[in-house]
Design a protein that fits this description.
The protein has 23 helices and 2 strands. By secondary structure, it is mainly alpha-helical. Among the domains are: 162 residues, Orthogonal Bundle (Arp2/3 complex 21 kDa subunit ARPC3); 222 residues, Hypothetical protein af1432.
Length: 620
């Protein structure tokens, strides 16, 4: 059985969610059980003390002017600060930390329930509605690992720095997901990531709102996926959006906001931390993009570029042992890359997949028509079921060769999905014609692969058929190519081969237009050179025998045929005139004409004699 990539089932999702819920709970509470980190008056703190944003009842003024006030505030005591019991802020921070230490089992259990619910919601969404690549077990483990890693970074900022919590680059996680997969999945992951990060600060309202808005902004403003500069710009835009939101929330919740005073605090400024946190998210996304893609099961771009080198050993093997297949693969690569780029899929991955997808044909290249040339087909002497087995084997053999050659699994996937689960129709019909009561079923002639699971593999399946069928379209017009492409697409849709590919009807329409245009350009005509036009006007000549010399006329005219017998004429009657024209009819009688009278002419001379000898003047 052909081994494919492992998908996360219901049991795997449940176990995965519970395991990461335990890890999230441990990360959120481990600092509370470290006794040396507990604050003490008149001693420097080992970690930062933070009181979440909230409203408090405080006493304002002294003596007769004192009064009770209700004001919202947050508090940050940087690490290594000596706690002064005379300061109200230090007393409040000390009281808050003393209330949390040591953590109660009930509180940890409640946190576990929250984390488990968020994890299950995310995993269930990915399994039911997420992109197919996200449903792979390795990919889901990678997503949860990235969330755990970002929670660790946020926890480190909260514990070991005195910076505002908005410096946390939590928006990097949804930005990575949007780059690697799709925006819709990134949006849900952003929501989960924001709640998990806010839970580290007792679900701080301002932190939660800033994290949500910043993540949604990077998803919406992600334009150019290729250039690192665009990722940094996206992060800055997200930071500006979150800064505006912070001003609005501060005005609503605190009754006002003093921007000049806030900016004057520099490293403690909340506005600068909002903008800086967004820019930091863009920077982190750009710098760590390649290792993150490896964690998510993707192939980094530099690795894909290495695989496009035609000096790669496996590509040289394909070009040397199956040259027809190699030329077919190169033509497919050009067509598939442009089609993938037109709908926003990974064009480079599609090109690499086109190069390697048919490597299994190197085992028995003569069994495939593109490699046979003028040699007789080996299928002429084989039973249809044996021929079908030989054809279908290239899928399994190609997968085996690629995996043994160390090719990344996303590229190997093209080998066992480019035919899907289709039937080898030619040999199935041939088998039915030869067996009135067939013992084998249609499934015996079905490819042993799987249906395309991504847009890239589905594009390659379509291009594999379209590139071959394009050679039969005459004349090579856009309408002819569009009609052929629609037939191929409808055939695949009817067979259910595109059911799991995530290709929309809009994508198929764009693909049809893009590929028909590309085929018209591929089969364009050329103006003939002058020497080509001259050769067309010349008679056909043999290049193996010399040109015949000019034919010369005979030196002596052929003999005239004997005259036919005729009755003797009476003496009075003149002899019968020759049917030749009179002398006046010949404007230029030949000088060689004999003055003697010619022999008696036949009333109907033959054409050969007339054409061979010049006409003589007739005598009365």
């Amino acid at each position: 059985m052909l081994r494919t990539r492992v998908r996360a089932g219901t049991g795997a999702i449940l176990v995965l969610s519970l395991v990461f819920a335990i890890l999230f709970s441990a990360l959120g509470s481990f600092d509370l059980v470290v006794s040396s980190w507990a604050p003490r008056f008149a001693e420097p703190t080992s970690v930062a003390l933070r009181v979440p944003f909230g409203s408090r009842i405080v006493q304002m003024g002294d003596g007769e002017t004192s009064h009770i006030a209700y004001e919202p505030a947050r508090m940050i005591i940087p690490p290594y600060t000596v706690l002064d019991e005379s300061l109200a802020s230090h007393r409040e921070a000390f009281a808050y930390e003393s209330m949390r230490r040591p953590p109660r089992l009930l509180r940890i259990g409640a946190l576990f329930v929250i984390y488990a619910a968020l994890s299950l919601m995310l995993a269930a969404y990915i399994q039911r509605l997420g992109q197919n690549r996200l449903r792979l077990l390795r990919t889901q483990i990678g997503v949860f690992a990235l969330i755990l890693l970002m929670m660790g970074v946020t926890k480190a900022i909260l514990l070991f720095t005195g910076l505002p919590e908005f410096w946390s680059p939590v928006a990097a996680v949804p930005l990575w997901i949007a780059l690697a997969f799709d925006r819709r999945s990134a949006l849900l992951i952003n929501i989960v990531m924001a709640f998990l990060a806010a839970s580290l600060l007792r679900f701080d309202l301002m932190f939660l709102a800033i994290a949500l808005v910043r993540g949604m902004t990077v998803i919406l403003f992600l334009l150019n996926r290729r250039k690192p500069r665009s990722l940094l710009l996206t992060g800055v835009l997200a930071g500006l959006a979150s800064a505006l939101l912070y001003v609005a929330l501060a005005t609503v919740l605190e009754g006002g906001f003093d921007a000049v005073r806030d900016l004057g605090r520099l490293e403690g400024s909340y506005l600068l931390s909002c903008v800086g946190g967004g820019a930091l998210a863009g920077l982190v996304t750009s710098v760590l993009r390649d290792p993150v893609e490896r964690i998510l099961g993707h192939v980094p771009r530099d690795k894909l570029l290495d695989l496009t080198d035609i000096e790669h050993p496996l590509l040289k093997k394909l070009a040397g042992e199956a040259p027809g297949t190699w030329e077919h693969s190169r033509a497919m690569a050009n067509l598939a890359e442009g089609a993938a780029a037109a709908i926003g899929a990974d064009a480079l991955l599609t090109r690499v997949g086109a190069y390697f997808h048919d490597l299994g044909k190197t085992v028995q290249p003569s069994y495939f028509v593109e490699n046979q040339g003028k040699e007789p087909s080996p299928h002429d002497d084989l039973a249809p079921e044996v021929s079908a087995d030989a054809i279908m084997a290239h899928v399994v053999l190609g997968t085996k060769i690629l995996r043994e050659g160390g090719i990344p699994e996303p590229v190997v996937e093209f080998a066992y999905t480019h035919h899907g689960t289709q039937v080898v129709e030619y040999f199935w019909h041939k088998y039915q014609e030869q067996n009135e009561e067939p013992e084998l079923t249609k499934d015996h002639f079905r490819y042993p692969g799987m249906k395309p699971q991504t847009k890239e593999t589905a594009i390659l399946m379509l291009v594999d058929s379209i590139e071959a069928a394009s050679r039969t379209v005459s004349p090579p017009s856009k309408d002819g190519f569009e009609d052929m492409i629609r037939r191929v697409v409808f055939t695949k849709l009817k067979a259910g081969q595109l059911d799991h590919s995530n290709l929309s009807m809009e994508d198929l329409h764009i693909l049809t237009d893009r590929m028909s245009t590309a085929l018209v350009n591929m089969y364009h005509g050329r103006i003939k050179y002058p020497w080509q036009r001259q050769q067309e006007r010349k008679p056909a000549q043999s290049f193996t025998t010399p040109h015949p010399s000019e034919v010369k006329p005979l030196s002596e005219p052929p003999p005239e045929p004997p005259p036919e017998p005729r009755p003797k004429a009476s003496p009075e009657a003149p002899p019968e005139a020759s049917p030749e024209p009179p002398p006046e009819a010949s404007p230029d009688p030949p000088p060689e004409a004999s003055p003697e009278p010619p022999p008696e002419a036949s009333p109907e001379p033959s054409e050969e004699v007339t054409e061979a000898s010049p006409a003589a003047p007739a005598h009365a």
